[in-house]
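Most newcomers find our protein records easier to grasp once they have seen one. Read left to right, the backbone structure tokens trace the chain's path through space. Once this layout is familiar, the rest of the handout is easier to follow. The record below serves as our worked example for the rest of this section:


***
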Amino acid sequence: MKNIRCLIAGVVVTLLLISCNSGNSTLKEGVWRGVFDLESNEIPFIFEVKGSSPDSLSVSLINGEERFPLGKITYRNDSVTIPVDLYDAVLTGKLLDNRIDGRFIRLTAEKPDKGIPFKAQWGQSQRFLTVAEIPQFSLGGTWDIEMLNPDHPNHTVGIFEQRENLLTGSILTNSGDYRFLEGVVYGKRFQLSAFSGSSPYLVEGEFTSDSTFVGAFVTPRRSVKIEGRRNPSAALADPYGLSALKEGFTTLDFSFPNLDGNPVSLADSRYKGKVVIVSILGSWCPNCLDEAAFLSPWYKENRKRGVEILGLAFERKNDFDFAKRTLTRLIERFDIQYQILFAGQSGTDSASKALPALNGIAAFPTTIFIDKKGAVRKVHTGFSGPATGKFYEDFKGEFNRLVDTLLVEE
């Protein structure tokens, strides 16, 4: 009997030690490879853990040149949770032996979100597993890409760089771009993916010649057939021609609360007699984050020239306290020093109703340029971020030339 009691005591101690060890498990510093497990596809992503101690560990998603920092890691027993603060989402799951088995869950979904299942493994840095097959074609260059969605066919532009079998690049639409895609080419096939906290993307295809391919654009919600054709002059519709003032209007009139709850309008003294850039945005919108990353330092350098920026934010919920929380995170992330107002719930219809002088808002972000007299001079739809290379540089040049022109006017 004594031996049995000793055996039972030993088992209990062992279980307690296992429980304590699992509760103290932490993410191992270094590079991790994750894979979102969809019904018919897998979308790989890469993240890096850094820090000198468990309490100081930080996580960043990696996409090409991009490093997108996530929130503070928390642990509970054998589980780990990594907040994706700007998108009100989390990566959460069981942590064991330098592996995570978990889900990507959106916290602000209208219905309880079951999440997207994923697995991650420490020590793997290759986004796509190595394929020894030598590329027969190159995806490098600029392409016309048709998204063959039966309900909403869409013309896009792809811009890619290929070094041996490694790929980087992005796909541009009239609302913005799909950020930093990264992948591989092998034989006649290619694959690229990206995940920067919002939605994972997968682009895969097969060359039918050196200047054409067929493939698919995959997200957790759908898979759309695509066709590509090499075209050095590939371009989208004029971004200044998609939204405009309605006939008979010359100015923009609105009043929305700032994050202190005080109403703000273009008639306020802060904006009168100045060139004003109005950014229509949402903290949930990846291209809006790219625009904020550009506008915030630009404003600090140029505000003394007589120019102001005013953000009109349309958030996931039509709730001021919720919007204040999400927009405060946005402001802190990019050190934004211009005012951002809460204008209503997200959606192009909602934004169009809130600004009836415009013939409609086609996409987020939309940027409106107003001269010193208060007249709307240009409306720009979408934003081509740094992942788009020359398109981003072209936009910055156009932006600065337009503002310079408005500033020198009497």
Observations:
- Residues 2-23 form the longest helix (22 residues).
- The mean pLDDT is 91.
